[in-house]
């Protein structure tokens, strides 16, 4: 007798279960990404619609192109800036504000340092040109 066994292995793969998993993951990530609150700096740009009321004379931190800091027109180090920001917070509490005036050629690193100081002490920072 000429009986032959059919022992061919099928190379088919069902994609329906894989697409279900991908859609479930897509829905999961879409829902969870909308719940994430970004941890942003409290930076207000000056303008007509600014709701921040600035105290009479907030300290002005000027950042020069070469990376030096000026606090109210006087040369200052990073330690002195931190002390001034802390003093402003102690003086005005929740209404504490500082002005940041970076030179257009100033390094972003120095600008972010001053913005980070304001963030750490929970002070409103207003960028000035």
Descriptive notes:
The chain is α/β, with parallel strands linked by helices and 129 residues long. It has a domain of 85 residues: 2-Layer Sandwich (Nucleotidyltransferase, domain 5), CATH 3.30.420.270. It is built from 3 helices and 6 strands, in the order αββββαβαβ. The protein has a 6-stranded mixed sheet, covered by helices on one side. Helix 3 links the parallel strand 5 and strand 6. The termini are far apart. The mean pLDDT is 80.
List keywords for this structure.
129 residues, 17% strand, elongated
CATH class of the domain at 43-127: Alpha Beta
N to C succession of SSEs: HEEEEHEHE
- Strand tally, please? 6
Helix fraction, binned, reads 25-40%
* Most strands sheet: 6 strands, mixed
State the helix count.
3
CATH topology of the domain at 43-127: Nucleotidyltransferase, domain 5
Give the overall pLDDT as a whole number. 80
- What is the SS-derived class? alpha/beta
Return the CATH architecture of the domain at 43-127. Answer: 2-Layer Sandwich
Distance between the termini: 97 Å
Major sheet strand order: 1-6-5-2-3-4
Broad shape: elongated
- Strand fraction band? 15-25%
Low-confidence stretches: none
């Amino acid at each position: 007798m000429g009986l032959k066994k059919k022992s061919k292995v099928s190379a088919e793969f069902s994609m329906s279960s894989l697409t279900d998993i991908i859609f479930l993951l897509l829905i999961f990530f879409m829902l969870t990404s909308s719940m994430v609150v970004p941890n942003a700096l409290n930076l207000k740009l000056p303008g007509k619609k600014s709701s921040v009321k600035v105290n009479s004379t907030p300290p002005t931190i000027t950042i020069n192109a070469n990376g030096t800091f000026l606090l109210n027109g006087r040369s200052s180090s990073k330690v002195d800036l931190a002390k001034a920001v802390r003093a402003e917070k102690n003086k005005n509490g929740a209404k504490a504000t500082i002005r940041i005036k970076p030179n257009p050629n100033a390094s972003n690193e120095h600008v972010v340092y001053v913005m980070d100081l304001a963030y750490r002490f929970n002070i409103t920072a207003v960028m000035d040109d």
